[in-house]
Every structure is written in C-alpha cells, then in structure tokens.
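Standup notes
- DV: blocked on the single-chain target, sequence here:
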Amino acid sequence: FGVVKGFDLRRALEDDGVAAQVAADMRAHRLLVFKGQEGLTGAEHIALSERFGSTDHGLHRPHPAAPHERLLRVSNDEAQGFRSIGTSGWHVDGVMIKWPFSTQTMHFLEANAAGSTLFLGFDELLAGVDAATRERWERMWFVAGVGDDLMNGDGQFALHPLVTSLGDGRRGMCMHLGPGYCLGMVQENPPARAAAQEPEPAPEPQQQEEEEEPKEAEKPKGFFDKLFAAPAVPAAVAAQRPLKSEDVFEAEEELARLLDCDAAAIEKPADVLREVEREIEARRGACVHEQIWESGDFAFIDNRALAHLPSPGTQDATEVSGRRLFHRTTMTDGTPLTSAARGRPSLVISGGPVPLPAGAGGVDVRDFYVYKRVLRGLVRVTNA
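- DV (later): unblocked, structure below
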C-alpha cells in the first residue's frame, strides 16, 4: 500500500502523464492514499475520477447533500450522508453488472479516529489457502443480480468467476459476503483430460489343447435381472448425493452450455461463502490491512485486487466519535472479469430490457426462457 504527501492531485486533471503515473502506482500498490487534498471540490473529484474510467453505471443514488449526482456521500450523520454503506460483509463493488468496478476513490472531508476501513489482499489470501481449496475456488462462479423484480424477469444477473486473473500473475476475487447479495454459486467441472492409454499387448499364441465338450451358452439377462442384480448404493453415499429437482437439473444443464464446460453444479452459496470467511479469519494477520483515515485523505483503490469492509467504529454516533464524512466514486473500465482457471469472461443474463447505462457493461444473453430456467435452479438450491 502507498502513501503520497505534498502532491496536489489536481495536477492529474490536466496532465495525461501524471494521470497515467497515478493509475500505474495505484495498480502496483492497490491502495494509494494522497494526503492533504482538502481543497478538492466535488466537481474536481468527478473530473478526476473520469480520468480512470466511467462513473456512468447507474448503481448509486445521490444523497440530498451531495454536490454531484455521481458522488456517493457517506457519513455517520444521516443529515450529511448515507449510513451503513457496505457494512454487511467483505466485498468488492459492482458485483451485479458485467464490468465490476475497476477503481474506486474515497475523499475524506471529515475523519474520526474510530472510522477506519479494512482492506483484504486477494493475492495474500489465495497464496495462503491450500492447493485443493484454491483449485476448487478457481472453478466457482459467483452470481449476483440487480432489478426491481428479479423472479419475474425485471432485472439481470451476472456470473463472475470467484477467482480472477488480473494479469502479470496477479489474482483477484469477485465476491460479496453480505447477506442477500449472492444469488447462487456455480461450480464448473474441470476440463476433460484424455487419459494416456498404453497400447494393449499382443495376445500370446495359445498352445493346442484337447477339445472340451461344448458348454451351454449363458442366456442374456433381461432388464429386470440386471436391475435387481446391481449392488445397492450405500446409505452413506446416498446421503451425500441428495436428489435434485427438475429445476436444478435444467439450470445446471443450461449453465454448462453458457459457461462452455463439461458440467456445472449449483452449490449452496452460504456454505461456500462461510468457507471463504473462515479462510480470511484464519489468515487475517497476513492479508488484512487497517487504514486509519485523516481529513483531506484521497484514496485510489484497486477494486478487483482488494475487498473492503468498514470497521464497526464507522457507525458510531457523532456524539461518541465525532463526524465521519466522505465522497466516493466507482468507475468501470470496459473490461469484464476473467477466470483464473480458463480465462473465461463474466456473463450477464437478462429476461428483457434493463435500464442501466452503457457504463454497466450491457447484457450477453437476453432470453426470458434461459433467464427463468437458470434463476429457478439457483433459487431452489439457495433456499433449500
């Protein structure tokens, strides 16, 4: 993580070279904090953000006190900004659109001692988990949606790889551990691997033997003979393979086609996300950074390389810890996520028109039948 002092960020508004250097430093450090930016206005914040991507994605609503409609204004004082933003669990922003945000910014107009933010480094987390867990996560897809009535086709849902490739050997994740954000988890089967088969040895010549009397040919068994002769499935195995409903079978069939894999299995998201949370807690010291803010701080954050979570103190009443107030922007850069396992890009499915701006990334499959078929299976498993 990086800290810069004695530099006026407004220089990046007019100098392409400076803006490019800031972008490169942010990717290198993942969290880049510029101190002493008290003089930056709301309009300048938006103009600066637009140097790093599009803020036109339609996912934020303006607070009445915000100086610009694309500035998310957050505070522990409801009269000044929205409260309880992002407090429900570790997450990256924009998981419900095709282009999850590449960059986000935070400009602290007022900071307090209790209002820190926790950042989770995905590279550190993935380096710490065992190989079998990491390989399984790399075959997982996180599903999230947005819309007024998802079950009746008014909205869209996105399938994102849980573990992503960020280039140059770096890895990220796409997830939201807060309740209600994950519609489902899908695990793709590994690609079929052709087993190397050795050629069968040539049969050895047989010695001439005395002829035996011919035996009566065995009658072929009928269907029911074969059925009842088959060994029973042990109870312990049967318990691990519960019967799936037709909705789930149909959804998995459709998902395998959409993801272009041998087979797909819908997993219960709560189980997968609890496992991720346990791994985070087990490695907290190695992969979690606590950022203590000061008034005037302006941060660039690589949203695909870091998850974040406000600390509990961010919700303290102003009478307890003083006021905390910041403006935030989130930007898309026109690129979907790609899976670390196969380089497969994110996929968005809708049942009809979705009124989101172009900056959200659009829709890959607009088909009400496919939409309903997949969503029914996801919901069936999630609510089981």
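- Follow-up: Residues 95 and 144 are 6 Å apart (CA to CA).
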